[in-house]
Amino acid sequence: MYNGIGLPTPRGSGTNGYVQRNLGALRHKRERADGRPEDELRKLEASLAKKPNRDILDHERKRKVELKCLELSELMEEQGYTESEIQEKVATFRMMLLEKDVALGKEGEQPDPNQKPT
Q1: pTM confidence score
Q2: Rounded to whole angstroms, what are the CA distances from 12 to 4, 7, 82?
Q3: How would you write the pLDDT of the chain (118 residues) with one tens digit per residue?
Q4: Which InterPro entries match (predicted)?
Q5: Residue 8 to residue 1: CA distance in whole angstroms
Q6: Can you tell me the distance from the alpha carbon of 19 to that of 1, in angstroms, rounded to the nearest whole number?
Q7: For residue 15, with 0-12 CB atoms within 10 Å meaning exposed, 13-18 middle and 19 or more buried, which class applies?
Q8: Which of 30, 70, 105, 110 sits at 20 to 30 Å (Cα–Cα) from 20?
Q9: Cα separation, 1 vs 7, whole angstroms
Q10: Is 102 exposed, middle or buried (0-12, 13-18, 19+ CB in 10 A)?
């Protein structure tokens, strides 16, 4: 017997008497939600409220403009306009839409209330 653990004698037990710890039954200490450090909590909150990627938003905006330009060019083709007239009108229409989008984007940009001023 070793420190009160095991058999008094291994004789007749079918074992050699060597005593091992059962590592499979150990309970691992886990950090609780209230025990987390502040910086770790901030990282978790930031990952929950991500801002959309500006490049993706710009790409979507440009796609919408191009779709409207394509619809205009198809409409003009059906009405019998020449290719050069269509290209001119579509180019001016595209410039108008892009300028309008830029103007709306600057008006729509408001400071985020959750963001701290720098």
Answers
A1: 0.50
A2: 19, 11, 105
A3: 556 777 777 777 888 878 887 888 777 666 555 566 777 877 888 778 778 888 999 999 999 999 999 999 999 999 999 999 999 999 999 999 989 888 877 665 554 544 444 4
A4: mRNA_splic_Cwf21_dom (IPR013170), SRRM_Domain-Containing (IPR052109)
A5: 5
A6: 9
A7: exposed
A8: 30
A9: 6
A10: exposed
Rg of the chain on CA atoms, in Å? 35
**CA-CA distance, 98 to 36, in Å (whole number)?**
48
Q: 85 and 102 in contact (C-beta within 8 Å)?
A: no
> Could you tell me the two tokens for 115?
């963001």
Residue at 75: amino acid letter = L
SS3 2: strand
The total number of residues shown for the chain amounts to 118
